[in-house]
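Journal club side-thread
Mid-discussion, someone asked how the predicted structure for our own chain would compare to the paper's figures. Pasting it here so we can look after the session.
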Amino acid sequence: MTEPIYCEIRVKGHLSKQWSAWFGGLQIENQPDGQAVLSGPLLDQAALYGVLNRMRDLGLALVSVNCVERKSDQN
């Protein structure tokens, strides 16, 4: 079984924290520079692509995506 991946996705603009569930449960933190950072674990790359597709559908401007596989002992 694949280990979850931890992702940090940055987009232009601020988002309400109410969008968290729609973005796979990622935590949303609005930055002073006008960006929003969505971060947290996702089950796999398919879940990541689902989140990215939702962002595309909303017309959000993607700034960066950083993901790492987490080892079981890093929980």
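Post-session note: The domain at 5-74 is CATH 3.30.70 (Alpha-Beta Plaits).
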